[in-house]
Amino acid sequence: MKESISAYSKQKAIIKKALRNAEFENIEISNGYYYFSGFATKNNKRIYFSISDVRHFSDNEVLIRTARDYKDYTGGSNCYADLNVEDIQKLANSLTTQNIHNKIAEEVKEIREKNKW
Q1: Angular region, 46: left φ>0, alpha ψ -120 to 50, beta rest
Q2: How far is CA 41 from the centre of its chain?
Q3: How many other C-beta atoms are found inside a 10 Å radius of the C-beta of residue 66?
Q4: R_g of the chain computed on alpha carbons
Q5: Using an 8 Å Cβ cutoff, are 44 and 95 in contact?
Q6: Is the pLDDT of residue 15 over 90?
Q7: Tell me, what DSSP letter sits at residue 79?
Q8: What are the φ/ψ torsions at residue 29 (nearest 5 degrees)?
């Protein structure tokens, strides 16, 4: 149980740092006992993020998706980032850019070329 609380605290700190460094504003976090979720804003666009219960699920990824407002818990398509500052920033930024479809297409192309699909 102590390990779960430690993992929870670490996850929360990583996400906050990533979003702050990427210049997101109005970062709000709702705490569960072993999980948390929240919202943040950049370029007048909102994202929702969530970490599942650390006792039962992987503690190395975060769900991030677009949201209409700070009460939209069902928003856009689920996207996942590895739980590190760089990956969280990259995904969160891509979800708040004007040309999101073009950016995603470019990233998919890069991944395919890298993995030679």
Answers
A1: beta
A2: 12
A3: 16
A4: 14
A5: no
A6: yes
A7: E
A8: -125, 130
Per-residue model confidence as pLDDT tens digits over 62-89: 999 999 999 998 888 899 999 999 999 9
Q: Cβ(61)–Cβ(88) under 8 Å?
A: no
The per-residue pLDDT for range 27-58, each reduced to its tens digit, is 999 988 778 899 999 989 999 999 887 676 66
- Residue 63's identity, in one-letter code, is L
What distance in Å separates the CA atoms of residue 10 and residue 2, rounded to the nearest whole number?
A: 12
Residue 103 tokens, joined: 């950016």
Which residue type sits at 77? S
Give which of 74, 77, 71, 72 is closest to 100, Cα–Cα: 77
> In 3-state terms, what secondary structure has residue 16?
helix
Give pTM, 2 decimals. 0.76
In the numeric block, which tokens belong to residue 43? 């370029």
